[in-house]
Amino acid sequence: MPARILITGATGFIGSRVAAAARRSAPDATLLLLSRHRTGTGGATPAPGSRTVHGDLADPATLAGACRGADVLLHCASLIGGPEAGLTAVNDRGTAALVADARRHGVGRIVLVSTAAVHGRGPFRGTAPHRAPLAPSSATSRTRAAAERHVLAAGGTVLRPHLVYGAGDRWFVPGLAALHRRLAADPAGWDALLSLVDVRDLAEAAVGAALGPVPLPGAHFVNHPEPVRCSEIVAALADRLGLRRHRSRIGLAEARDRLTGDPVGLHALERLTTDHWFADGAVWRLTGRDPGPGFAARFADHLSWYRQHVPC
C-alpha cells in the first residue's frame, strides 16, 4: 500500500522542499499537509496526491486525530523568534501534542527537522553529535530543544542542520550580507569554519530518514561534509552578487561596538565569527542520499533568488 506521509510546515522554506522531495521519492504516496487553514494549505488548493489536514501547532487541541492513517510524520514546522510564550506554545507544546497523536495512531516513523543552534555558541570543530551538549542560548533554541526531546522520547529521528541556504532563504545569506554592509570592514574571525547545507539536499536527507530502509533513531547533524570559511561565503557574494569588498579589518570588540543596539546583528556576528563545524556523515551514508558538491557549486543554482532578496 502506498505510504501516507504527514508533513508539517509544507509551505515553508524547508518544508516545501521536503514535500517536493517526498513526492519524487514516493510518487504514489499520499501527502497529508498539516495546515491551520480549513481549506487548502495557506488557503491554496493542495496539489494532486496531497490532502490538507487541519491542525494548528499553537492550539494542541486541534491536533487530535491529525496523524490518523499516517505512516510517517515529517515535522518541519517551527516558530522562529517572537515572545517566548508563543515559541513554547508552538515548538514545545505543539510538538508534544503532535508526537502524542502520532504514537496514539501507530505512526511508524517520526522525523523532526531541528537545528544545530540547540548546542549554543561554539567553537565547534569537527564536533560529533554525542560530543555536543545541549546549551541553547535563545528562547527559540530552547523551545526547539524541547521539541527534540518529545521526538527522541518517542524513538524518532532528529536532524540538526546548521546554516541552510538556497531559494527561499531569508535569513542566512541576506543576514550575512546585511552584517557585512553594517560593519563596513572585515571583522576578526571572518575565517571561521561553518557547516552549511543546501535546502534541497537537506530535504532529500529528511525524506531518506523518513522513508529509507534503515530507521535512524536519535539526533544527527545533517550538513555538507566539508565546512566553508565565512570569508569564502563573503567572497562568493562579492563575485556573484556584487557585494562590496572591504579593504580594512577590525577586531571583534570594535565590530560589537558598531553593532550596538542591533541584537540580531550581534547574534549573527557571534555565530559567523566562531567555528561551527559539525561532523556527522551517518544520515548521508545510511539513507544513500548524496550531500551534493558543496557550497561553491550549489550557490550558483540560487543566484536568481538571492539577486532579488539580497540588496548589495
Oligomer: single chain
% residues in beta strands: 15-25%
Distance between the termini: 51 Å
Helix content: 25-40%
What structural category characterises the helix and strand content? Answer: alpha/beta
Q: What number of structural domains do the residues give?
A: 1
- What strand line-up does the widest sheet have? 3-2-1-4-5-7-12
CATH superfamily: NAD(P)-binding Rossmann-like Domain
Major beta sheet summary: 7 strands, parallel
CATH class (first level) name: Alpha Beta
| Element order: H for helix, E for strand | EHEEEHEEHEEHEEEHEEHEHHEHHH
Return the average pLDDT rounded to an integer: 94
CATH architecture: 3-Layer(aba) Sandwich
Taken from the alpha-carbon principal axes, the silhouette is globular
- Record field, number of beta strands: 15
Please state the CA-atom Rg, rounded to the nearest Å: 19 Å
> Which spans of ≥5 residues are poorly predicted at pLDDT below 50?
none
CATH topology-level name:
Rossmann fold
Helical region count?
Answer: 11
Notes on the protein architecture:
The protein is an alpha/beta fold and 312 residues long. The chain has a single domain, classed as 3-Layer(aba) Sandwich (Rossmann fold), CATH 3.40.50. The protein is built from eleven helices and 15 strands. Strands 3-2-1-4-5-7-12 form a seven-stranded parallel sheet, with helices on both faces. A two-stranded parallel ribbon has the order 6-15. It has a two-stranded parallel sheet with strand order 8-11. β1, α1 and β2 form a beta-alpha-beta unit. α1 packs across α5 and α2 runs parallel beside α3.
